[in-house]
Amino acid sequence: MTATTARPRGVTRFALTINAVLVFVFFYAPIAILTLFSFSDDRLVGRWGGFTLGWYRDFAANDEVQDALWVSVRVAIVSTIVSVVLGTLAALALERFRFRGQRVFDAVLYLPIIIPDVTMAVMMLLFFAQGIDLVNDMFGTSFRKGVGTVTLSHIAFNISFVSVVVRARLAGMSQVLEEAALDLYASRWKTFRHITLPQIMPGIVGGALLALTLSLDDVVITQFVAGPGSTTLPVYVFSLIRKGVTPLINAVSVVMLVASIILVLLSLLADRVRTSGS
Amino acid sequence: MTLVDEPPPPGPALDDIPTAPEATPAFERAAARADSRRGALLAAPAFLYLFLFFVVPFGIVVVYSFATRNRTGGTDLSGWNFDSYERLTDPIVRTILYRSVALAVITTVICLVVAYPFAYFLATRSPRVRNLMLVFVMIPFWTNFLVRNYAWRLIFENDGVLTDTTSAIGLGEIDLLFTQRAVVVGLVYGFLPFMILPLYASIERIDLSLVEASRDLYASGFQTLRKVLIPLSMPGIIAGSILVFVPSLGAYVTPAILGGGKSVLLGSYIVVQFLTARNWPLGAALSVVSMMVMLSATLVYFRSGGKNL
Fold first, then answer.
1. How many CB atoms are located within 10 Å of the residue B189 CB?
2. Which residues pair with B75 in a beta bridge?
3. What angle do CA B51, A199, A208 make, to 5 degrees?
4. ∠ CA B247-B49-A166 to the nearest 5 degrees?
5. How many whole angstroms separate alpha carbon B230 and alpha carbon B226?
6. How far apart are the C-alpha atoms of A219 and A231, rounded to whole Å?
7. Structure confidence by residue, pLDDT tens digits, B51-104
8. Integer Cα distance of B191 and B91 in angstroms
9. Test mutation, A18, A94, A110, A115, chain B, max B CBs within 10 A
């Protein structure tokens, strides 16, 4: 932009710049301090006692942390795969077709995004408390809350987020190529496979990364539907924080932080492919 | 009729070429029906899933909110009543609701005051700088919410970074851990990007020559802000405020980590009803009420012209 009166000058400009700098300091200082203290050789979490890698070694040696990490990864991968398939189909249905009940479906698909964590957690708790008893009584099975219920709940909120991201991609995409393929006697499936799918791929990748991040981050819903043996890493960390803090949490937190930053950067990269592709 | 006189049958090659059916109204209707069926078929798996694992649980919560808690902490579903909703007017519950709303409002106002100038600054940068700054706003937005709250716990910890700093610069030891102020800091930290992004999106769309025109006509900076910028960015202000207010009201993780036992908030109170007090009907009634608040806020947002969440 050229220099205009819309671009603030003088005192206003100075104040705006200071505000922007402070916002970034506010965003990044806690992350920096957390990372720094994860290398601190002191039994108190907030005190500097010289450099050590000890807490990361503890992290690698701690069975409970390892188990929680694996539960997290398993749940995240399964729920991402399922929600990407269901969410993409839903996005295609909403963007490319008109069908009866579409408005209702659209509304139901938005709800899991709007509803607060705690409410959704409560819903899932009651549902599984009731549902598991019912199913066990009817079929003589012995289901319990566990990795299964956690995964089912994560899929429920991930479908919505995936479909929003894929829909955005579909909405901004011209239908000309799809129509051309159909006119040239490509079957519906061939058109989807060779024309639509490659074009919406960046959206699907973005949606998948979002689902993965949300699943790896979730505490509240997971805590409500987790049973013995299905503690995820965030739930484990949350319980440790409330029980009393040890510097081990600093190391675990930094690992979680690095994981999510890698996922953000990947998604930004997918976004770059998306914008340069169209 | 003799066989010899019959004209030769048409070549098979011609048969293979499909001819376009006539576009009669009946054909159009059939095509529309087929299309509708395809759409419904594609939507079916996600719809069934969400029906079973979202709509049904939603219904169960509503049913529970009309149930009664029995002496053993179980829930009686037989006699429906409004007791749990009546209990929402109890002084304790009222205090918690009032406190939660107040904290959510304070959080929203702080976010708005900080984010508006930030978003304007962002919108007046060159595209390169702007994109880079946006990426740095997005990173905290995506990183683990629990870890971000925990980072503040570390800062507020007794004998931690904050007390060391404040006593070093002569302010005395400011102890914020387990106060409502600490919760507000945590909430602002968690939800500030939710305010910045929609505000930036709406300010960026404003034709800034309107600002120039206003200044050319001798409006002061403040007058331009009040009469030109704020009205034009209203959709962004509403969207950002709802996106911050709604999750702040239902917050559970932040008060649990940064707030003390003294200042119970709505989110934690619901959790307590389910996990500790075992009063499921009251917890369900509170959830239903908060859902209604969220849904009406969202409707306001869509009515005001907001499109994306």
1. 22
2. B69
3. 45
4. 65
5. 6
6. 10
7. 999 999 999 999 999 988 877 777 777 777 888 888 888 898 999 999 999 999
8. 30
9. A115
Q: Do A126 and B61 touch (CB under 8 A)?
A: yes
Smallest Cβ–Cβ distance between A86 and the set B32, B38, B49 belongs to B49
Q: In this complex, which of A20, A117, A155 lies closest to B250 when CB atoms are compared?
A: A117
Round the CA-based radius of gyration of chain B to a whole number and report it.
30
pLDDT band for B47, please (50, 70, 90 cuts): very high
Q: Cα separation of B254 and B158, whole Å?
A: 18
3-state helix/strand/coil string of A209-256: HHHHHHHHHCCHHHHHHCCCCCCCHHHHHHHHHHHCCCCHHHHHHHHH
Whether A249 and A62 have beta carbons less than 8 Å apart is answered as no
Give pTM, 2 decimals. 0.85
Q: Kindly provide the ipTM of the predicted complex, given to two decimals.
A: 0.86
| Predicted local distance difference test score (pLDDT) of residue A276 | 58
B205 vs B212: CA distance, rounded Å: 15
* Distance (Å, whole) CA B266 – CA A118: 10
| Residue B283, C-beta contacts closer than 8 angstroms, at least 6 positions apart | A122, B270, B271, B273, B274
Cβ distance of B117 and A16 shorter than 8 Å: yes
Question: What chain B residue is nearest to A247 in terms of C-alpha separation?
Answer: B154
pLDDT in tens, B216-239: 888 887 888 888 888 888 888 988
* List of chain A residues whose C-beta atoms are within 8 Å of the C-beta of residue B257: 238, 241-242
Interface test with A, best of B19, B50, B197 (most A CBs within 10 A): B50
Which of A122, A235, A241, A255 to mutate against chain B (most B CBs within 10 Å)? A122
**Cβ contacts of B247 on chain A, cutoff 8 Å:** 116-117
Residue with tokens 């005190």: A47
Radius of gyration of chain A (CA): 23
Bridge partners (DSSP) of residue B122 are none
